[in-house]
Amino acid sequence: MGIDYLVCEVCGDAFPDVGYYGYCGGCESALCGGCVEDMGEKYGRVDPESEFAEDYGEESPCKCDECTKPKLDTEKFETLMYFLIKGAAKYDFAEFLENAGLTEKDYEDIEAYLKTTYGIKTY
Ligand SMILES: [Zn+2]
Ligand SMILES: [Zn+2]
Fold first, then answer.
1. C-alpha 101: how far from its chain's center?
2. Is the domain of 13 the same as that of 39?
3. pLDDT confidence bin for 72, thresholds 50/70/90
4. Structural domain tally of the chain?
5. How many Å lie between the centroid of ligand 1 and the Cα of residue 52?
6. Is the pTM of this model over 0.85?
7. Which residues in the chain belong to E strands, given as ranges?
8. How far is the CA of 94 from the centre of ligand 1 (A)?
9. Which end of the chain has fewer CB atoms within 10 angstroms, the N or the C?
C-alpha cells in the first residue's frame, strides 16, 4: 500500500496517483492534472458518452502532445538519406559537402549519430 507515482507523458513530471490526474483519450498515456487541463483545451475533450469518458473521466483530452507529435519513420528516413546522398555523390560528393559548408568529418559525425541514435545507415 502507499502512494504510487506516475510519470506524465507530456511534461515528464512525476506525480502521485492520488488527487487529480488523467489519461489521454488518444494514446492512453498518463497525464498530470495540469496537462489534462492543457491538452483538453488544446485538443478538446473526449466524447462524454464514450467508454473512455466512463473509465477515465469526461475531462480526458482527445489527444495529447505526445501522440500528435510527428514521429520519425526511420525506414523512410533512411531511404530519403540514401537517395539524397546518392544524388549528391553522382556529381562530386566532396564538392557537395564543400558547397554545404561541411567537412568530411562533419559528415562522418552525422553518419555516426544517425547510425547510433536511429540505426539509420547512410549511403
Ligand atoms: Zn504533465
Ligand atoms: Zn496522447
1. 30
2. yes
3. confident
4. 2
5. 19
6. no
7. 5-7, 14-16, 21-23, 30-32
8. 47
9. N
Distance 25 CA to ligand 1 centre (A): 15
Amino acid identity of 85?
Answer: I
87 in Cβ contact with 80 (< 8 Å): no
Structural domain boundaries, residue 99: 74-118
Are 60 and 10 contained in the same domain?
yes
Tell me which residues have their CB within 5 A of the ion that is ligand 1.
Answer: 8, 10-11, 32, 35
C-alpha 9 – ligand 2 centre gap (Å): 8
The rounded Å distance from CA 22 to ligand 1 centre is: 10
Q: Would residue 85 count as lying in a domain? A: yes
C-alpha 15 – ligand 1 centre gap (Å): 8
Compute the average pLDDT of residues 17-23. Answer: 92
Is 123 within a domain?
no
Q: Is residue 9 part of a domain?
A: yes
* 26 found inside a domain: yes
At 80, list the grid cell.
530519403
Q: What nine digits make up the cell of 102?
A: 561541411
